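Page 47, continued from p. 46.
Same chain as before, 229 aa.
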Amino acid sequence: MSELTSALLAGAIVLALVLHLAWQARASRNRASMALAVEQGRIRTIIADAANVSDGTAGVITWEGSWNGQRVQLRTIVDTLATRKLPARWLSVSITEEVAVPATFDMMKRSGSPTTFSNFDLLEHTLPKAPGFPAEAVLRTDRRAARFPQGVIASHIEIFSEGRAKELLITPKGVRIVWLLAEAGRARYGVFRQAEFGDATLDPVLIERLLASVSALRDAINRSERQAA
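Result:
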């Protein structure tokens, strides 16, 4: 084989590889766009006016709208921190309305590893736990002297008996629950380092259940504060 023929063959191989990678990237973008449209349709069965307000952060999609007369936010987060055994996809469900608490209250289950969706690790003060909280949960706040209605909170977190419930965040501006949607497939991630979550997607029943949970908790806290006033 002549040098010219070898050079032409090598060039053809490189071109084929570049075209294949471009095709894969385009196909991946098309799949992502289709999946996003499907998920938005499912969200809108619960939050009719849900609007995609994402800011372009990689792996994060955010929707905002109203549900039962309250402002709400849904967010999906792909967490690929190297400290995790496998990448995870989280669902954050928030009601962004006023709550009668004096500071930030953050409950994290299995808090040993950092996350990309929470400032839990930045909160300096650990709270003693009242009865009723999960044994593996840690409570933190940003104000040492802050007092919270822990009895009320503990009586409204039945959903945290399930393993997928990860974080409960309460601030004067709202209530949030973070839920594990899925972990990446081990085989594909181990070989290609690609985070694929199979057919895991947003379930309208789950969305409404989480919204009902944060709404009931917010109502209970505000009612307790009014009664104490």
